[in-house]
Design a protein that fits this description.
Largest sheet: 3 strands, antiparallel
Number of helices: 5
Radius of gyration: 13 Å
Shape: globular
Structural class: alpha+beta
Strand order of the largest sheet: 1-3-2
Oligomer: single chain
Order of helices and strands: HHEHEEHH
Distance between the termini: 42 Å
Length: 105
């Protein structure tokens, strides 16, 4: 069964903001934004159980922040920057440039 990915026009601001209201998911967003390309789910350092990580990946995908596809036995993930920038201009940059707890920027 294919994973659900909302179309660009289906992305809702409240879903994106709710997804990024969690520090783990915000950290994933920052890691993906800093990556030159796609990443595998296991390549990001998450300090949570596998089932909790799966939940976070699903929330990011279903809110439209990420896109996933299978690459052999791995799940590759990309940030949907073009879709998010088109639908909500400036939102990602504002989020990524805002310090969070623990930042020394």
């Amino acid at each position: 069964m294919a994973a659900y990915h909302p179309a660009r026009e289906q992305l809702l601001l409240e879903d994106v903001l709710a997804a990024l209201g969690n520090p783990v998911r915000l950290g994933i967003l920052r890691e993906l934004a800093a990556s030159p390309g796609e990443r595998t789910c296991g390549s990001l350092p998450l300090d949570v159980t596998k089932s909790t990580a799966t939940h976070h990946w699903r929330v990011l995908r279903e809110s439209g922040i990420t896109r996933e596809h299978r690459d052999g036995r791995y799940k590759a993930v990309t940030l949907r920057r073009d879709d998010l920038d088109n639908r909500f201009p400036g939102l990602l940059d504002a989020i990524l440039n805002t310090p969070t707890a623990g930042d020394t920027r």
